[in-house]
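Issue: ligand-bound run for manganese (II) ion - logging full I/O for the record.

Environment: standard queue, default settings, no custom constraints.

Inputs:
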Amino acid sequence: MKARVLKTFEGLDKPVDALLIANSVDPHLDQSFFYFFDAPSGLFEGSVAVGHPDGQLDVLTSPLEAESAHAAAKVDPSARVHTVERDSAETMLPKLLDGAARVGLNYQELTHAWYERLAKALPSVTWVDASAAIRKARAIKDAEEIERLGRAAEIGSKVGREIPSLLKPGISELDLASEIEYRMNRHGASGRSFGTIVAFGAHGAEPHYAPGASTRLAPGSSIVCDFGAFYRRYASDITRSFRFGPADPEMREVHLTVERAQEAALATIRPGVAAKDVHNAAAAVIDASPFKGRLIHGVGHSIGLAVHDGWHYGPKVDDPLEEAMVFTVEPGIYLPGKGGVRIEDDVVVTHDGYRMLTTAPRGYLEVPA
Ligand code: GLY
Ligand code: MN
Ligand code: MN
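Outputs:
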């Protein structure tokens, strides 16, 4: 997409004659490929995109993906599709990069094997790390991206509203995770944006816990559900925490504290604010409570073509927020041996504040057991 290629060139601190994105095999696919080339389907393993300073894009793809590639090129006149046999993309590269002395690569994503192939095919090229410019371009979303992120968030929110009705004694963490993923697909997701987290009881104290088949819901459990949808390649990421009765006064207090922490973080969001100020606003609420020190991660990260889209914020991140950034706000409190509460929402920065993309209720909810 011409505007995205041009925007990335503008953000480079060292000039290049071309930008090159090369995919390996799943899961080593550089999502930046899809930032520049909006293919409606397909993995594009082994495919290469070459962006030029005038915004034109050459895409090398295998016959496997040709249909999707041509469909994308039909709506994007700046993209030219070349179909080559699998694993032979570099046969075309000297021609496409004819005269290019300096070529930008996404050092954050390119595999070493691809680097060696490129160095062999183009021995006189000077390679330049373009990853900061790519990350920066991707961090500021355009209208189409915000629309898709909003749709992905809506899907997550619909399922978030349905979870209380799914909580029954005896269901396993994996049962609930499967139901969440099934429902996201029924609401229009193309899949989950990451491995769904469902944590009952003490498991909730582990932020990236993997759900199990043998842990079953029993009265007196706290529950953390962290899940997200892909909608037309764009991700959402939402966490809702519940109590399966009877109540526990401490876990209720934990929930109310996390809610206040999230509200404090949200209240800071507007263009120009340092990212660390958002984190620190949430951390200050938690550290002034009986749960001091139990926020054990940064309070958010950018979302986009990946659920962890390249930028996160924490106590030391000075980067200023900018309009059209989309990121999560997800404070949590984790009590080892007892459980945890995390509340996570997706927001877009507007000219004077933010707009919430996720809308499922986040308040303390005790579901009768
Ligand atoms: N889903 C993992 C996270 O919230 O970052
Ligand atoms: Mn999450
Ligand atoms: Mn997250």
